[in-house]
Every structure is written in structure tokens, then in C-alpha cells.
Design a protein that fits this description.
This protein is mostly helical. The chain contains seven helices and four strands, in the order αααββαβαβαα. It has helices at about 5-15, 35-40, 55, 75-95, 115-125, 150-155, 160-174; strands at about 60-65, 70, 110, 130. The strands form two sheets. Strands 1-4 form a two-stranded parallel sheet. The protein is globular, with a radius of gyration of 18 Å.
């Protein structure tokens, strides 16, 4: 858990589902995500990302690994929900011997991290204080969702570019 929108949303979901949980604070700025305890939960030291623009607004530094030479895949929540709805409809329409199927609901469009940050800066009207760091151990320069099977199975195609999704999120967050 980190005190960010992701952590809050997970806590709300667990509360609404009446599931027992224990909050364990994770300080990303101090590198808690690299501790052996955290790596047991998430071996690639990742937390789900929601645009956390508070540091930029507050003038606090943001950590940018591999000196910004990274590409990541960002999926807007409406596209994820649409994918889940499409998958649910597919399950309801077809009976199959398969009880489970794993489908990747992602964007499949890697974005340069610096471009991503620029869109956030534009949305909040403030330049980020950037703390450039070397590549993290075990990280990769470029990642993105392989949605070929998902598209074939349920017709899923994300449609929201970051230039639309980030401003919507920032406005919603306010």
C-alpha cells in the first residue's frame, strides 16, 4: 500500500467486498518496493499505476529511471472497463468446457516516459522536478500489453490515448 490513488482504490474495493486486509505502508520515495518483503509480493517491484500527479503539483521530485529512456504501456480505466464488459458478454454468450481464460486487457501502445510526464505537466500547469536515476535492477526499457489473443477472442481494442485519458483523470481527481 502506498498513500496514492492506487492504494486508496484498492482499500475501497477491499472494504466494499468486505474482505479482511492489513495495510502495510510502502514508501516508494525511499525504495521500500525493493525490500525483500515487498519483492515477495511483487517480484518486479511494480505497483499498479494511476497517474499520481500530487508530487508535481506540490513541487516534490519524481523518480525517473534509466534517465527517462523508458517506454511503458498506459491503459485508461474506461478502456479496461470496456474490455471487462466485452469479456463478460463473451462468457455469457458461449458455453465452453474452459472454465477460465486469461486475457490481457491493456493498451498495446508503449509511450515514451518523458512524453507521458509532459502530458501530466501540461494538465496540472506545472513542470515536474525530475530526479533522474539509473535503470533499476530487473527492469526493462520497454513494456507493453500483448492483446492479440484478447482482440481475437472478444474484439477488445483500447481507444483512449494518454492525451485524452490523463486530462480526464486529473479533472476527475480534483
Amino acid at each position: 500500500y502506498a498513500p496514492t490513488p492506487n492504494g486508496w482504490k484498492i482499500s475501497i474495493m477491499l472494504e466494499e467486498c468486505e474482505m479482511d486486509y492489513k495495510v502495510i505502508p510502502v514508501n516508494l520515495g525511499k525504495g521500500d518496493q525493493f525490500t525483500p518483503e515487498f519483492l515477495k509480493i511483487s517480484p518486479n517491484n511494480r505497483m499498479p499505476v494511476i497517474v499520481d500527479h500530487e508530487n508535481i503539483i506540490n513541487g516534490e521530485p519524481i523518480s525517473i529511471y534509466n534517465n527517462g529512456k523508458m517506454h511503458r504501456d498506459f491503459t485508461y480505466i474506461d478502456d479496461v472497463v470496456d474490455g471487462l464488459i466485452q469479456a463478460s458478454k463473451e462468457v455469457l454468450q458461449h458455453t465452453s468446457k474452459e472454465k477460465h481464460k486469461v486475457l490481457n486487457v491493456g493498451n498495446n501502445m508503449p509511450i515514451n516516459l518523458e512524453d507521458f510526464i509532459s502530458v501530466i505537466e501540461e494538465c496540472v500547469g506545472k513542470k515536474a522536478v525530475k530526479n533522474y536515476l539509473p535503470m533499476q535492477q530487473g527492469d526493462v526499457k520497454k513494456t507493453f500489453a500483448d492483446i492479440e489473443e484478447t482482440t481475437r477472442q472478444i474484439g477488445f481494442r483500447p481507444i483512449t490515448p494518454i492525451t485524452v485519458g490523463i486530462p480526464r483523470f486529473v479533472e476527475w481527481y480534483k
